[in-house]
Amino acid sequence: MGTIVFFIFAILTIAAAWGVVTSKNIVHSALYLALSFSGVAVLYILMNADFLAAVQLLVYTGAVAIMVVFAVMLTLRGEVQESSLENRSWGWGAIVASLVFVVIALVVLGNTDWRVLPTEWTSGGSAADLSLLLLTQFMVPFEAAAVLLTVALVGAVILAKGVKRAHELK
Amino acid sequence: METLNNLFLIIAAAIRSLFADPHSVWANLTMDVINFIIVVVIIVLAALILILLERKIAGWTSQRTGPNRLGPRGWFQTIADALKLMGKEDITPAGADKFIFKVAPMIVFSLPMMTLAVIPYGNGMAPINLDLGIFYFLAISAISTVAFLMAGWGSNNKYSLLGGMRAVAQMISYEIPLLFSLLGVVMITQSFNLGTIVEAQKTIPFIILQPLAFVIYIIAGLAEVNRAPFDLVEADQEVVAGPFTEYTGLRWGLFFLGEYGNMTAVSALAATVFLGGWQGPMFLPGWVWFWLKVGIIIFFMMWVRWTFPRIRVDHLMHLAWKVLLPLSILNIFLTGFGIYIYRFVMGG
Fold first, then answer.
1. CB atoms B146 and A128 under 8 Å
2. Per-residue pLDDT at B65
3. CB–CB contact B165 A72 (8 Å)
4. How many CB pairs under 8 A join A and B?
């Protein structure tokens, strides 16, 4: 049962991801991305990580709407049907992407402490355990990520609004 | 009384006992299908009743009669309207992005079905008892933004697109205070599970402990379901009907079902989290208490809709980011202090 569901949603996720890169219409690409994210959320649920699945839906799928808005606002071509034409150097992109994938896969496969649990894990990705880990053992990386995001946000505001000298503000 | 209170649980147990093994895969599947049908019926019934109620309340607040021709006191008005909608021609605009245009109303309608499935309608009566109840509810509601934008984009109409853009700006801004307002309750109960939250309100509903959070939730909830005074998404005078402009017949009806389903879901969550859900004095069964509380919140939302004028676009963002968000963060701080003071006083 779980295997069938896994393959249905794995195929859906990959097909949607294929749609993201091949679609000529940039809005379609963004919506395919939402579908792909939702498929990943289902895969998380199959792995009993339901908290992560909910985060995936809330943060990624929901935020695709903003991406569509930006796609609409930033598209320079007149016809949106042809807003995301294939780039001529897609071959290089494919090579770089595969290399990155291989490197990440090697790092993950090599460094993870693969354990077989004595009994099957059924209690789910508990939010309580996760938050406890985030606020004790992994507090420094967690706060660092938060600071990084804040810096990015402030940077985006500065880029968008421009910087003025103090005496110009009046 | 006890029988009446557990009426639906007894029926569920009776259906399960029809199977050789009451907890086999097939028994569970049957119960899931029945629960699904019940949730759909809740949405359809809610839409039928609420649309009539809305027009009656609109009449009452603006001192008009409201619908009064069809059936006794006009009670059959919505049924007649629904039949008329089914008979209308289904038009897809020539320039529309056809697939997105057709799929958007289905998503809008399916989201309240997913959120209403985790609400405990009575003691042990949640169709799906999810540990992440509140969080799941908010995650699913976040998707409705995409659905509105798809409708606005797919219609290929400038007013629809403007409405869709407004939906994105408004719903994403108000999602944050909505989420934060519920955190206070989660901090007190230490659980996302809606059943546990209702159990925790046995002696005192959380509206008394979290009055600020309740006010923030109701305001942000009104904005989440795009109802006046936050109906900028479909503001008739400015953008015709926003994302729904090009929709006709049953597709438009699906948006309507979705809107009233969403309204029921937001009110049901408010009743569950702040008003004690199915808890109440024993002279009425728990599920009656639950629907009474939901009804009170829905009545309040309708009352607000027909009393206040629409908020201005710039004020909309101002309210979300500069008023509601700081207040909800303040609420989280106060709740944290409160929990420590409580522990100190109780000698913990």
1. no
2. 82
3. yes
4. 64
Please answer yes or no on whether A61 and B140 come within 8 Å at the CB atom: no
Q: What distance in Å separates the CA atoms of residue A16 and residue B53, rounded to the nearest whole number?
A: 43
Q: Do B149 and A127 touch (CB under 8 A)?
A: no
pLDDT number for residue A15: 92
C-alpha dist (Å) from residue B247 to B80, B93, B105, B143: 19, 9, 9, 20
Please say whether the beta carbons of B196 and B124 come within 8 A. no
What pTM value is reported for the model? 0.84
How far apart are alpha carbons B143 and A53 in whole angstroms? 13
Separation between Cα atoms, residue A170 and residue A36, nearest integer Å: 48
CB pair distance less than 8 Å for A54 and B165 = no
Measured between beta carbons, the chain B residues lying within 8 angstroms of A61 are 142-143, 146
In this prediction, residues A107-119 reach a mean pLDDT of 78
Which one of B130, B136, B172 has the shortest CB-CB distance to A66? B172
Q: What is the DSSP secondary structure assignment for residue B312, as one 8-state letter?
A: P
What is the average pLDDT value for chain A, to the nearest integer? 80
Cross-chain CB nearest to A58 (options B139, B149, B190)? B139
Whether this model's ipTM surpasses 0.95 comes out as no
Task: Return left, alpha or beta for B242; rule: phi > 0 is left, psi -120 to 50 is alpha, else beta.
Answer: left
With a cut of 90, say whether residue A99 has pLDDT above it.
yes
DSSP chain A: -HHHHHHHHHHHHHHHHHHHHH-SSHHHHHHHHHHHHHHHHHHHHHTT-HHHHHHIIIIIIHHHHHHHHHHHHH--SS-GGGTTPPPTTHHHHHHHHHHHHHHHHHHHHHH------SS---S---HHHHHHHHHTTTHHHHHHHHHHHHHHHHHHHHHHH----GGG--
Which residues of chain A are within 8 Å of residue B172 when distances are taken between CB atoms?
62, 65-66
Nearest to B132 among A27, A31, A51 (CB): A51
Q: Which residue has the tokens 């400015």?
A: B238
Contacts of B100 in chain A (CB under 8 A): 27-28, 31
**B182 CB-near residues (< 8 Å, 6+ apart):** B134, B138, B213, B217, B273
Average pLDDT over residues B60-67: 84
Strand, coil or helix: B277: coil
Residue B203 binned pLDDT confidence (cut-offs 50, 70, 90): confident
Going by C-alpha positions, the residue among A24, A18, A32, A16 that lies closest to residue A67 is A32
Quick: pLDDT tens for B52-63.
888 888 888 888
What is the per-residue pLDDT for A96? 92
Residue type (1 letter), B293: K
What integer pLDDT is reported at residue B348 of this predicted model?
A: 59
Directed axis angle between helix B25-61 and helix B286-305, to 10°? 40
